[in-house]
Write a structure and sequence with these properties.
- The chain is α/β, with parallel strands linked by helices.
- It contains nine helices and seven strands.
- Strands 3-2-1-4-5-6-7 form a seven-stranded parallel β-sheet, with helices on both faces.
- 46% of the residues are buried.
């Protein structure tokens, strides 16, 4: 279904972004890897180049580009390189994100700015840059890895700066889905039901024990794939949950996605904002 489609995926050198890239690569898709990591990091496995090797082994074509999405000129240059290499862009996946779960007094303005520049502004910049090419696609999709806009105070109180920044991505979905509905460009959000075994969970949310009670990035990748294969005009403005997407596609057993299949599903860590 995604054969010869070109996906521009931010934060795709590891984690959920790379898992989405690999799932699309199995169809023979073209993947533009947009991330900062050129050299190996002691705490963060993978680079844009190792991701490219994995994508090509999976059956896709890869274009690794070292880009900081806070730099709009760099993003626009990356988009033009991608379009020149693959003939256009069909899908934008805004996966790159920054997280800091601190309270108001503990959040430095540098950290506040980082989260907003990557999460909200970075999303907006990537959409602006990709739109001219998406308009030429037969089935254009934009997918944000961001949560439903849950306005319960408990999701704001402990980490208001992070919530504001993450919800900025979701507000882009809400507004842009309406703005570009007449053009048939789909804008949707996807969020996991449970914690996902990523570097952020390991390093910020409880280490190995938290990872053990998580699902793998592949559940999000499979859900993303199902969304991106839908007809764009008929699928826009949704705030999808990974498990619900897969249930709608006929999946009922999700133990295969667990890091530890022996853990009872009800004992998995729930994700934020649900």
């Amino acid at each position: 279904m995604l054969n010869q489609k070109t996906l521009f995926i931010t934060g795709s050198s590891r984690g959920i972004g790379k898992a989405i890239a690999l799932r699309a690569a199995r169809d023979g898709a073209n993947i533009v890897i947009v991330a900062k990591t050129r050299e190996p990091h002691p705490k963060l496995p993978g680079t844009i180049f190792t991701a490219a090797e994995e994508i090509e082994r999976a059956g896709g074509q890869a274009l690794p580009l070292a880009v900081d999405i806070r730099d709009d000129k760099a993003v626009n240059t990356a988009v033009e390189k991608a379009a020149a290499r693959f003939g256009g862009i069909d899908i934008l996946v805004n996966n790159a994100s920054a997280i800091n779960l601190s309270g108001t007094l503990e959040t430095s303005l540098k950290r506040f700015d980082l989260m907003h520049q990557i999460n909200t502004r970075g999303t907006f910049v990537c959409v602006q840059a990709c739109l001219p090419h998406l308009r030429s696609s037969a089935n254009p999709h934009v997918l944000m890895l961001s949560p439903p806009l849950n306005m319960e105070a408990r999701w704001f109180g402990p980490h208001v700066a992070y919530t504001m920044a993450k919800y900025g991505m979701s507000m882009c979905v809400l507004g842009m889905a309406e703005e570009f509905r007449p053009e048939g460009i789909a804008f949707n959000a996807l969020w996991p039901r449970t914690a996902i075994a990523t570097a952020a969970v390991r390093n910020l949310l409880g280490g190995g024990e938290a990872v053990k009670h998580s699902r793998t990035p592949e559940i999000v990748a499979d859900a993303a794939y199902a969304i991106l294969c839908r007809e764009s005009r008929a699928c826009t403005g949704n705030f999808f949950i990974d498990e619900d997407v897969l249930r709608a596609a006929g999946r009922t057993d999700f133990r295969g996605y667990q890091v530890d299949p022996e853990i009872a599903p009800e004992a998995l860590l729930p994700d934020f904002f649900l």
